[in-house]
Amino acid sequence: MEIIAHNCDNIFDKLKTEWNQLLNQSTANCIFSTWEWQSTWWKTYSTGNLWLVTCRNDEGTLIAIAPWFIEHAEDGKRIVRSVGCVDVTDYVDIIVHRDWVEPVLEGLADFLLDNQAAFDMIDLCNLPSNSVTHKKLPATLTTRGFEVRVEQQEVCPIITLPETWDDYLAALPKKSRHELRRKIRRAQNAPEKIDWYIVENQDDLENEMEQFLLLMRASHPEKAAFLDEVENKHFFEAIAPLMFENGWLQLAFLTIDDKPAATYLNFDYNNQVLVYNSGILPDEYGHLSPGIVLLAHLIEHAINQKRTVLDFLRGDETYKYRMGGQDTPIYMLEAKLSRH
């Protein structure tokens, strides 16, 4: 096995044709591990020195990518982190071909031991519960003298989607089901003209994204502050077209009297819908619950499209549970050699 650490940004371009092919055969096939996401995140944020590690078998086939970088903390420590950590990326993991998990993790652990002079500690965030980094890497590192700590970091509530919309409603707690039906009924009976749509190929994505960002900013002061950081706004503007070109972007709007009142920016990937961000005009249309009504339409749409999961991603906001979300944990892994 050949294991190489790459420090130049052009490695993303060099791996472009192989990256997603590996991802589709890996244990970590998630939108946030795609070449499009990872390369765009690094181009936008790049908060450290790239340390992207590739593993190839004896035939030269790419069998793993550890998309890492080394951050230089204020206290002088050099910390190995995952490309994507932490704020705009909900899941990150080592990308390993499903048939090569054990030898790759052994090889990476040896690589880290051999290159211990390059870093002081490892801090990997946002690991899904079924992640090989979370489940198998700790023991592999421990046998090589690393002190490893794994803790639950946050939760990602998900809905395992049933066969029909009626089945979905029946599975909700009685109070939540009653409230959702009441809000949908109120919107249906409102004197205003209420409609919704998902942005399709013929629509002007740039204009639609501008409208999304306006609604996102209007929905909460924290979201406005987030978008005031130029790099965050640039990331949204850069990632949306790439997701759209690949058929992974689900940008939806609910309109009231033809005016956008609520929006969701989701990802439709690997037969799952990931609810990434949203926006509303709460002061103008709050009485019509446009955000919840639009979300209900999107859940029904996902069921009709035979998607298996709707993932609310990180955060334990109340509405996620009222809509049927069930917690799945995500983890962080910290490791260091005893000399540190």
Structure description:
The chain is of the alpha+beta class and 340 residues long. The chain folds into 2 domains: 2-154 and 329-337, Gcn5-related N-acetyltransferase (GNAT) (Aminopeptidase, 3-Layer(aba) Sandwich); 158-322, Gcn5-related N-acetyltransferase (GNAT) (Aminopeptidase), CATH 3.40.630. It contains 14 helices and 14 strands. The strands form 2 sheets. Strands 1, 2, 3, 4, 5, 6, 7 and 14 form an 8-stranded mixed β-sheet that branches. Strands 8-13-12-11-10-9 form a 6-stranded mixed β-sheet, with helices on both faces. A hairpin with a 2-residue loop joins strand 11 (259-269) and strand 12. The mean pLDDT is 96.
**Overall structural domain count:** 2
User: Order of helices and strands, N to C?
Assistant: EHHHEEEEHEHHEEHHEHHHEEEHHEHE
The total count of helices amounts to 14
* Broad shape: elongated
- Helicity level, as a percent range? 25-40%
> What percentage of the residues does DSSP assign to strands (E)?
25-35%
CATH class of the largest domain: Alpha Beta
Kindly name the structural category. alpha+beta
Distance between the termini: 29 Å
Question: How many strands, which pairing sense, and closed or not: the largest β-sheet?
Answer: 8 strands, mixed
Q: What average pLDDT do the residues reach?
A: 96
Unreliable spans: none
CATH domain topology of the largest domain: Aminopeptidase
Number of E-type strands: 14
Radius of gyration computed on alpha carbons: 22 Å
CATH superfamily of the largest domain: Gcn5-related N-acetyltransferase (GNAT)
